[in-house]
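Progress report, Aim 2. The chain analyzed during this reporting quarter is listed below.
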Amino acid sequence: MEIDQITLKTLMSKLSQPVHVSYIARYILKQEHDVTNRVIKKLIEDDLVEESPMGKEYYVRKNS
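Predicted structure tokens for the chain:
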């Protein structure tokens, strides 16, 4: 699933602090949980996002 640039920019700005995947799905992407997981997986593959050490399914923007 591709997301538009505005949504990507919004998501990346929210990920300056750890955010749970369910919050990302419901309030940021406004997509189903499985769709959100695919988006997050793609962002991890693109080396933009990582799972936070804070907890499982919490994601944060990767510091490059």
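The helical segments are 5-14, 21-29, 33-45. The radius of gyration is 10 Å. These observations will guide the mutagenesis work planned for the next reporting period.
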